[in-house]
């Protein structure tokens, strides 16, 4: 059972609830978030029902939820959540394109990629400054230098920034630059990191672990939600199977399955799923058609020299087709492409 | 290396080719199909090149193909194949809907399901009379009785029939009723069956093995092609992974990957992939959007009493949405829905 | 529910049982095997209980079994089955080594491999005359010529023969030479083949499908058992996973899990699991240590020229270590190596 | 290319090496560990060869290694590493049993489990104070209280402690109590944590990610090694497959495969692999037989009330069989069980 407190709840209100639960033989785990406080109850649900918790001061909602994840479950949560990233919505009636370079390499490369993203209709800019790499000898990202480049590009293009954080110790630093924090596939069960981004007060994009079940993915989201942050976007990015023709196997069914189980938006990363440029557009079409709330795509001005994942990046000549896809396919499904800031002419 | 002989090739022509290959230290495997004869060469390719095989009488084509599958490879095969099933095309500019009951149970159930299929815009009727079942205690299909029911329904609706064959010994019987033979996922590497359907003179739908790589799938198609039958449609139906929320994991990327590797049409089975009714329409949209040449869907008038796979069958109230999808989504991609015979009013 | 009839049951006895079941609203499936007849009942178990079936003439046993597989289930079957292959036991207190070439190529190669097998302590000779190959361009085996070679080698060495059959139409032919029929991984759900080997009156080795669950494997065994043949040995040969360092992933846990669920013997194929010569001995040790009832191993006098799976074959210098393993490790577990015919000196 | 510096290398020596590499157009990554300093070179290997790096002051070794992991590779590393945990060896000629409770719950439970471990012949005590749990509502461990309990039990039994750390921020705290740090399966690619344990000056047990390839596992070990810590023990704990009969699929082949690729010891966790008590002993036998350098096993005095993974814990009546296994099976393979401190009588 989970108690959701409103912003008006006082520390005394919370103490009163905890005492009541303890007296009933239960345990109460209090998690104070930026905008709300959550109290998770462990113990005898029948006895908790008799406490009339819903009538206590400060209590906004009391959820009795059978799913192992509670705050992110669609049970008792009629409407689907729309997450706002610096004013750009993800979820609801819109379909959001996020694009940018896999890794921030130089100011020029990042600016060029952002212009490409904007030309394709992107409303948000992706780009990695901290890169989790399987090999310690691979390029690990520019770190804070990369974050500053992203901030400069945002200032010029108006595109809010989505960027990855890989260490709980870096969350404050990354959050001071980013509009949305990304948790990558390898960190989906890095619980310290999940709790840290949950407490950071910024929206979070949570990629599915490459061998995580959908249930485990939602449990990972619950770790973030427990810290009071429900601005979470789930991102399917391909799972690991025996098939070798693609980098990963895009689990396209995960979109409708997750949307049935949670109120959170679900987007798709066709670049990391397929791992090949010529699969990105077909898989993007599949993602929008299946009902995804957005797609996140690698673009690079010069993929052949990219420091990370060049073979899967779209190039300039692909952008018109991507833009067309985003303009026409959502409409067929009764949705619209999320508008981002208009791109200024490149020469201006 | 593969030599394709034209219909005018005589037995003497073939003997001459074999002798020439043997003299060059190679081996020649001759496979006589209904409409063409194939000679596969094993040995030193350089020496074969010197034989000027292309100039010999009866020789239609000589293919030097590096892919492990040769006849079905897209190498040296510019145009994509359109397979004709009793006049209904699969492949090319059209998108074909195949629908019907998982298993033929009774004349009424089959007729009702066929009417449903037609209402949704199906051009072909699916329905199983021989069912491969994991358990020997499960319903194994009506056998020839079921084939007769299908033939009766075809006579009334005009819909050509796609039906499964599970034993090489039954191929002639099934082919005497069916317009297209289906090889199921469990039999994808039943090589005797593949060779038998290759020799049967009917188009074949080859489902991907539930844990087969795309390469193995194309190799299985090559077994059919080697018997002179290139009227093969590949069907992705979900692969086995650790995810438990769906019956199988639809490998949506397999469609564009296979289309890059082979000239054969590729369709999708969203019913067996997801295993749940509410996933069929989203996955069908994804399939058409990714570029599939068709979808094959379970429908049943009374899924709650179905003898096979009831939970994944579409019901009457789903048909309008399916019809709408088939009418609008292909058009967006520059394709059209394959028209089947028009449904006569149910009361006529 | 399953009724097992004794050899003394008459046709009239069987008709009487079927009538009784029909009158109770159920269905009875009669399967006549070589040594016993099985009647499977589908319907209301409670009503069947009231028929006192156990008291009817000819009835040997009545099994009420909750597992989806019934005849092979360990429920109601206290002792573990020992399968006798031309007098050589598999199961029980002994651990049986089966060895030989992957494919029969020539009389000399087969004879040499058989001598190697015998030197290592093998009690049975394996060797393929019909080879299921992913590619139609790969060596498909010598067919009946290969069977004759095996028979000649048996005559000289005394080793009974285990060989694969890939087509239901070949079962009688193969059974006329073989002492044990092997069903390969790709055919685990080739139900026509399972039923044919079930009726052939020879012991069967059933390899696990490369992506079959243990339950599906036992269901496949049930198809064989239903034809009256319970002389089935299960063989774990590695499953398909994402790991690329080995050909397959040996699921070593499958041995104790299957032994808990079925009374049939379970052996391991370390050659096809690992796919590398240097893994065969470690995996053989693991197999015997985990409690397998035997191992089946590829040996070849000249692996570098083998027509099939050379890289995984043991060579002469490995045999002493294999023989030592088979002599010492079973003893530690309270078992003994199954003795085969003694090898005559090679020069005699 | 990797340069290993001896403890006598001065800061000036290091600067000189870096300058030389830079002048040759390369990059040098310096990592100072507790006992040695590593310089990784990225760039043109041929030019580095000409620098005669091996002759420079402070240089201990120069490794040219083609494997993607270098420090942990068996290339250029003839002998297998023996890791010493507070004097207890893992690797070499010995086979080490590590046992204890999955989670530390109370002083009594931990003490009882330690006595059980010792009775079975364990040389090291395992026990979790920080537990990574899929659900935020599951027991997360006692934290530092649990570490203190472990230290008390060590004081009484003499058993060195292996315990998990889940957050880079906790590494110093955990290292102040533990004799060996464990990195769990979910954190195998938590690179910040890997680097932190690499710098902590304590031996590390690195569990394989539940869907990691063997190569990725060794790359993760390389992250630790790069910080100057080569006291790493690899632990295979089962991988994720479609099979549902076991919690995970023990990849027994991973032991010999990894031992061929790396000089580090490799042990097996049969408790988490199988997830069932009755599989622990068979899988332990398989692990020792395949050549593992040890096994790590869950034991619990009262599994039915365990807060974590009770169903897989061994109980008192299993211990004699485990002890017997550890005494006899290694001997058959020319190895011996690692002796730990002798258990004092429980009543003393």
UniProtKB/TrEMBL annotation, chains A, B, C, D:
Coiled coil: none annotated. Keywords: Transferase. The keyword Transferase applies. Transmembrane segments: none annotated. It holds the Pfam family DAHP_synth_1. GO terms for biological process: aromatic amino acid family biosynthetic process. Residues 1-66 form the DAHP synthase ferredoxin-like domain. It comes from the Bacteria. GO terms for molecular function: aldehyde-lyase activity; transferase activity. Residues 87-327 form the DAHP synthetase I/KDSA domain. PANTHER family: PHOSPHO-2-DEHYDRO-3-DEOXYHEPTONATE ALDOLASE, PROTEIN AROA(G). This is 3-deoxy-D-arabinoheptulosonate-7-phosphate synthase.
């Amino acid at each position: 059972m989970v108690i959701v407190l409103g912003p008006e709840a006082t520390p005394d209100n919370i103490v009163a609830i905890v005492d009541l639960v303890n007296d009933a033989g239960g345990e109460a785990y209090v998690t104070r978030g930026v905008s709300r406080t959550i109290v998770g109850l462990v113990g005898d649900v029948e006895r908790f029902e008799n406490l009339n918790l819903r009538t206590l001061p400060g209590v906004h909602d009391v959820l009795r939820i059978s799913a192992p994840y509670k705050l992110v479950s669609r049970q008792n949560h009629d409407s689907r959540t729309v997450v706002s990233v610096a004013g750009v919505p993800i979820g609801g009636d819109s379909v959001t394109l996020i694009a940018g370079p896999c890794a921030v390499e130089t100011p020029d490369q990042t600016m060029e990629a952002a212009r490409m993203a904007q030309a394709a209709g992107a409303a948000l800019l992706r780009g990695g400054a901290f890169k989790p790499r399987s090999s310690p000898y691979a390029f690990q990202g520019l770190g804070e230098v990369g974050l500053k480049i992203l901030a400069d590009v945002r200032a010029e293009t108006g595109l809010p920034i989505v960027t990855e954080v890989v260490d709980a110790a870096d969350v404050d630093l990354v959050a001071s630059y980013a509009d949305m924090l990304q948790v990558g596939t390898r960190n989906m069960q890095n619980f310290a990191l999940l709790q840290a981004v949950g407490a950071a007060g910024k929206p979070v994009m949570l990629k599915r672990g490459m061998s995580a079940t959908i249930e485990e993915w939602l449990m990972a989201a619950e770790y973030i939600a427990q810290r009071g942050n429900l601005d979470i976007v789930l991102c399917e990015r391909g799972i690991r199977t025996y098939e070798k023709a693609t980098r990963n196997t895009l689990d396209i069914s995960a979109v409708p399955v997750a949307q049935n189980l949670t109120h959170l938006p679900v987007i798709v990363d066709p670049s990391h799923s397929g791992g090949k440029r010529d699969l990105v557009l077909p898989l993007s079409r599949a993602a929008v058609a299946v009902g995804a709330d957005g797609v996140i795509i690698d673009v690079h001005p010069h993929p052949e020299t990219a420091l990370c994942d060049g073979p899967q990046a779209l190039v300039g000549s692909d952008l018109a087709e991507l833009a067309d896809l985003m303009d026409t396919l959502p409409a067929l499904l009764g949705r619209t492409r999320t508008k981002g800031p208009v791109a200024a002419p490149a020469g201006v």
